[in-house]
Give the backbone structure.
Amino acid sequence: MSAFAHARFLVTGGAGFVGSNLVKLLLAEGASFVHIVDNLLSAERASVPADSRVRFTEASIADDTLLSSLKEEYDYVFHLSTYHGNQSSIHDPLADHQNNTLTTLKLYERLRGFGRLKKIVYSAAGCSVAEKTFGAAEATEETDVVSLWMDSPYSMSKVFGEFYSTYYFKQHGLPTVRARFQNVYGPGEILGAGRWRGTPATVWRNVTPTFVWKALQGEPLPLENEGVATRDFIYVDDVATGLACCALRGKAGQVYNLASGRETSIRELAERINALAGNPAGVHLLPKRAWDNSGKRYGSTAKSERELGFRAGVALDAGLRQTIDWTKANVAVIRAAMQKHAGRLPGTG
């Protein structure tokens, strides 16, 4: 990553889980300047690294005043801001549109005249393009085939972001690269981070930190549909490395999976976390979520390995151990974030 030495970056969503871990990598690799823009809708100010090379702006990247203030001073842009996630978008599709779709369109409109930019990396979502199946899954390739039958506005808006990425590349020469995330987990994901977004998913946001927290509290882990769904879990440090590879070696106009290439059922994930955390409470079976038809999926790693030289390196058990250790060390931080929503959501004490 020595090519990042003395480089200047804009990272939207840089206070979030993935964004803050990426910023740490960029700083470690010699970045001279990192401008983080984050409205803290689903992130905490404390996640912004305390470093003289970091400038933090608390605002939406769709804010017109903020956009007009951006100068042609960036070598790379990582566009990670998003409206987290499926359930929040189902509850409030207009908020999803404001924070997922408009952010990308308005950012690209502002950047399309910036000649200094080497690469713009857009965080896409693997769930948007994966086949909807509860049968045997095949590794999802980087294709341009997209179903019109989406599970949530979030999935739709992430695809719209890909449409804008390819359009602005083709029409205006904007050097966009799309990085399709699978299920990212690891240290730094704070349950309850940010502001209330209308549903319990504000706190119980992703499956891995939810399971880790509940396991450490000695609670049974909730399994919808008996945990038969499968996902591709990739450690956050691997994702940060993959994003850097997209910026350095990704071809403008192209898309790359950031995936482990391994399929793990939600039941297996629960059992692993319970074992690693020493939780005897087991699981609590719940009905299938009515909106969720994504079933079984995992990502192909072939193109990223071939063109980026990227391969995920952290095995699931090793990553879960590090996530559990980080959670134990940050109980006070997580509890404080959760308590902000305690009046709206029982069981967050």
Summary: The chain has eleven helices and 13 strands. The first strand starts at residue 8 and ends at 12. The two ends are 42 Å apart (CA to CA).
